[in-house]
Every structure is written in C-alpha cells, then in structure tokens.
Amino acid sequence: MSIKNKFEKWFYLDDEEDDVGEQQPRREEPRAVQEPQQPLRKAQPRRQQQPMGEPQQAGTVVSLQSIQKSSKVILIEPRVYAEAQDISEHLKNKRAVVVNLQRIERDQGIRIVDFLSGTVYALGGDIQRIGTDIFLCTPENVEVAGAISDYFER
Question: Helices 106-123 and 84-92, interaxial angle, to 10°?
C-alpha cells in the first residue's frame, strides 16, 4: 500500500481506487455521522401590547423604571420620631409621601424633617413644604408641578 493510499484512507478519500491491478475487498469504516446543528436562539424580549392603531416599532427599548403598575401617594401623621424610618422606606420604594407634623411636638418634627431631608437628598428626590407643618417628600421618579405660596398662617 502506498503512502497516497494511506493518506486517502486516513481522510476517507479512497471512494474510488486508482490502481486497477490491486483488487482488494475494501473494508468500509463507519464514518462519524454529524447531526445538523441548530443555531442557538437569542432570547427575544417580550413585546408590550400597544393600543390599536399604533404601529409596532421593532427594537423599541423601554426602561423598566418608567413602567409601574400604579403610583401611590402615602399620607402619614407621625406621632413619634421613630416613624421617620418608615417614611423613608416608602421613599426608597419610589412612593411619594405627604407628612403631616401637626400632631407631634415641634422639636421632634424638626428632627423628622432633617431625617427626611437627608433621605430625599440621598435618593435624588425633593422635599417641599405644602402647608403649615405639612411636607411633601418625593423620590426621583416623581415630578411635582406648581408651587404653594409662602404665606402660611400660624
């Protein structure tokens, strides 16, 4: 057997024998059967249903922060300073809070406003006075339009 024949057998190229004089029974070696590979599928993003009449745009990217089930405004009248932490939890959960400090001692009310000011600052939100001892605390995802006059009766 020549080197050429060995090379052809090694790479399964010996389908036809070139040598007419050499008539040996050919032994078929099983070839490895390759299954067709299916391409990997990329995860397709879920499409949101759009109202009737609006065409769907392919490749539209929507921020998850802009989609919320419902917005809530929490009304709280704290009786002790310890409730300031509960108010800050609502702010961390992206809820606006109206805080009525009319039923708490003045020094504790000042401490609560200081605590909430720090919380709102850390979250990138805003705190506004909307009445006598009433404050509106909003996280960054809530925009407040308009203003309340600075004249408060006491």
Answer: 20
> Residue 96: in which H helix or E strand, if any?
strand 96-100
3-12 pLDDT per residue, tens: 777 767 767 6
Task: Round to whole Å and give the CA distance between 97 and 73.
Answer: 6
> 6 vs 76, which has greater pLDDT?
76
CA distances from 94 to 10, 14, 71, 112, 128 (A): 69, 73, 9, 19, 16
> How far is the CA of 23 from the CAs of 26, 38, 81, 115, in angstroms?
8, 42, 103, 98
Residue type, 146: G
Q: Give me the residues paired with residue 138 across strands.
A: 126
Predicted TM-score (pTM) of the model is: 0.53
C-alpha distances out from residue 124 to 12, 19, 44, 141, 148, Å: 70, 86, 33, 9, 21
Distance between alpha carbon 92 and the CA centroid of its chain, in Å? 16
Q: Rounded to an integer, what distance in angstroms lies between the CA atom of residue 63 and that of residue 65? A: 5
**DSSP H or E segment with residue 114:** helix 106-123
